Amino acid sequence: MNILITGHRGFIGKNLWLYFKSKGHNVQGWEWGDTPEFLLQPDLDLVIHCGAISSTTEYNAEKLMKKNYEFTTDLIVQCLERNIDLQYASSASVYGDAKTFRETDDCRPMNGYAWSKYLIDRFVLESISMPLPINIQGFRYFNVYGLHESLKGNQASPIHKFKQQAVVDESIMLFEDSENYLRDFICVDDICKVHEQMIDADVSGIFNVGTGRAVSFQTIADLISQKFDATIKHIPMPQNLKGSYQEFTQANIEKLSQYVNIEWTKVEDYINGL
Fold it and tell me: Which residues are tagged catalytic?
């Protein structure tokens, strides 16, 4: 297949780029600023759109709308005009402080990044309500971790951050009450498998991409502190995160499981293998 991946120098995009190249596909990459104008080539079979401002603390609404929303909607239109299937990265952040996580549940975005992803999902759901010549698949990633995560910078998962702290400082900085912060952590290797298997699914829609299992930040810190013989120091949550920090995520993957067959990586096994 001829595949274009936007954001191929980022964390998930780079993993996808390497994964599909290893499978023998012809893979191209594109980043914001590579060319003055973004135009899809007609010989493409699939676009995987990962490029976006991913910072949950970005408050420039104009910037978020331009790079996250307007670029994506233009990309969708180009895919429709050229008859190219599209997979794109959405986010579990659209659920906000919800307690259940089903694709049909109400969304409650708590920051600008989450709002930009929610607006794209809305646009897609309206678009696929009518027959289309292509498949458009939006993947609401839950908390992704794994190889090349250093590319995420401050947005890296606690798994990556805690390991770096344990190795460099021999101590882990953990928010107070972290036993009450639980997330659905999914390995980027499994993300790649989802994208691959969903190519063969003749379906459009929005899909949760997680493991269906939540693990606390405290558990992650405990596992890494034991692995690297580091201490844990509890610190207050920064003011800029209060009010926009998800306390709990756990994907309902009933819909996704109709189309993929993956044995999800357990975060405990991943940490033990570091």
Answer: 113, 152
pLDDT in tens, 63-101: 999 999 999 999 999 999 999 999 999 999 999 988 899
Q: How many CB atoms lie within 10 A of CB 143?
A: 22
Q: Under CATH, what is the fold of the domain 144-182+213-250+263-272?
A: UDP-galactose 4-epimerase; domain 1 (3.90.25)
Q: What is the CATH number of domain 2-143+187-209?
A: 3.40.50.720
Helix segments in the chain, DSSP class H? 11-22, 61-64, 71-82, 112-127, 158-169, 188-199, 217-228, 267-272
Cα radius of gyration (the chain): 19
pLDDT tens string 89-141: 999 999 998 889 999 999 999 999 999 999 999 999 999 999 999 999 999 99
Sorted by where each begins, the domain ranges of the chain are 2-143+187-209, 144-182+213-250+263-272
Please, which residues have CB within 8 angstroms of residue 194's CB and are 6 or more apart in sequence? 139, 209, 256, 260, 262
